[in-house]
Specification:
The protein is of the alpha/beta class. The protein is built from 9 helices and 17 strands. It folds into 3 domains: about 1-50 and about 95-150 and about 250-295, FAD/NAD(P)-binding domain, CATH 3.50.50.60; about 155-250, Alpha-Beta Plaits, CATH 3.30.70; about 310-385. The protein binds flavin-adenine dinucleotide.
């Protein structure tokens, strides 16, 4: 049976990031860690190629692979366009296929890239065993990124979306400026609907229609919403060159990254998704960095849930307020971006803000509805604690 220091199950955002992070990490004897990266052959388990957007200060691990970057952002409401610099951040887009090729090509000899469907994982005191269609392997540490049902929570919404890569015949976009949220599409009863526009050149962009709600739409419904949204943008009859579609669970469930003594969950399965936004990629970066750091120091490499506890509490309140309809999503997000510096809002949404600023920002949301939902959440937690 082949034996590794680290086995990574799944070559998506989390698996690829961790593989990349482990370059140059040695074991206690100074030898590069032996890593197995397991990804099944193309089929029902493999996700379709996608784009990963995130924001971070200028410079960054993936900068040389970026498909696009924007320093100028807008949020559009029914009454106004709020335009701002993204500073101190840059909003960035990666294509999953580019990350995949780069990580795999630069992985080095100490990484075995195995094309195998994992069928089981057995934890052990000293080693864990990974079972695949083609045999078994053992590893000191296993990081499992396979998608799994999130643990039960009180509120569960879906961020569901479809995007079109569009091409126009004449210049229609500013490649340095992205529309982060356009709240003008018709709003659902509960939750929120918005479009966004991420230009790739003067004549190409990713135009997406997104909802936060309980149920995803059919492809035909997304197509209609996208046609309407392109009409709203003054882009009727654009050429659609490709599409991406997805669903990201937004939940107040508490995730655990520890699945055994030697087995851990990472990525979406390990709570990397920020509940209030669905953004996952930057949480994955923090988890992978923490794991690599722990392995370097010879510690037990338990991935952190990469969000602060107080942010998860705030997100749970926001999700509840949206789901109960106490807060109208367009009003909430429009008000937040209208009344605050974009950089501050982005800092909060990615865990980089401080409490005083967060409290001040809280006052720019519908205060009565949020206070009522805070009390409702506190009572729920208290009563569950007592049960
Ligand atoms: C279309 C789409 C767009 C998104 N865009 C963004 C974005 O812009 N920004 C952002 O922050 N987040 C985004 N997300 C959310 C999140 O970042 C992505 O879903 C991301 O790919 C999650 O990474 P992951 O590694 O946890 O899971 P995945 O990337 O889904 O990787 C899981 C891997 O496990 C493999 N696997 C599954 N079963 C097995 C098995 N039995 N054995 C071995 N391997 C297996 C799969 O093949 C896959 O490669 C998006 C999600 C979707 C669906």
């Amino acid at each position: 049976m082949a034996d590794y220091d680290v086995a990574i199950i799944g070559g998506g955002a989390a698996g690829l990031t961790l593989t990349h992070r482990l370059r140059g990490v040695n074991d206690r004897r100074g030898r590069p860690l032996r890593v197995a990266l397991l990804e099944p052959p193309p089929g029902p388990h493999t996700p379709v190629p996608r784009t990963w957007c995130f924001w971070e200060p200028p410079g960054g691990t993936w900068d040389h692979l970026l498909a696009a970057r924007w320093e100028d952002l807008s949020v559009v409401t029914a009454d106004a366009t709020h335009r701002s610099e993204a500073a101190p951040y840059v909003y960035k887009m990666l294509r999953s296929a580019d990350v995949d090729s780069y990580v795999r090509e630069s992985a080095g000899e100490h990484v075995d890239q195995l094309c195998s469907l994992v069928t089981g994982v057995r934890d052990g005191a000293d080693r864990a065993v990974v079972e695949t269609g083609g045999g078994t392997l053992s590893a000191s540490w296993v990081f499992d990124t396979r998608p799994s049902e999130p643990p039960p929570g009180r509120t569960r919404l879906l961020q569901h979306f479809r995007g079109w890569f569009v091409r126009t015949r004449v210049d229609a976009f500013d490649p340095g400026a992205a529309v982060l949220m356009d709240l003008r599409p018709p709003q659902p009863e509960n939750g929120v609907a918005f479009g966004y526009v991420l230009p790739l050149s003067r004549r190409e962009a990713l135009v997406e229609y997104t909802e936060f709600g309980r149920e995803a739409l059919t492809t035909a419904e997304y197509e209609r919403a996208l046609e309407d949204y392109c009409g709203l943008l003054g882009l009727p009859g654009v050429e659609v060159t490709a599409a991406e579609q997805g669903v990201i669970p937004m939940t107040d469930a508490r995730f655990s990254t520890r699945a055994g003594r030697r087995v851990f969950r990472l990525g979406t399965a390990g709570g990397a998704t920020r509940p209030s936004t669905g953004y996952t990629f930057s949480g994955v970066q923090r988890q992978a960095a923490a794991v690599a750091g722990a392995l370097e120091r010879g510690r037990v490499p338990v991935p952190p849930v990469p969000h602060r506890r107080r942010h998860l509490v705030m997100d749970a309140i926001m999700l509840r307020a949206l789901d109960t309809g106490r807060v109208r999503g367009a009003e909430f997000f429009g008000g937040l971006f209208a009344a605050n510096r974009f950089g501050d809002v982005l800092a909060f949404l990615d865990g980089g803000s401080r409490l005083p600023r967060e409290l001040a920002m809280g006052l720019t949301t519908p205060v009565a509805a949020m206070a009522l939902t805070t009390a409702d959440q506190a009572w729920y937690r208290l009563s569950r604690g007592r049960a």
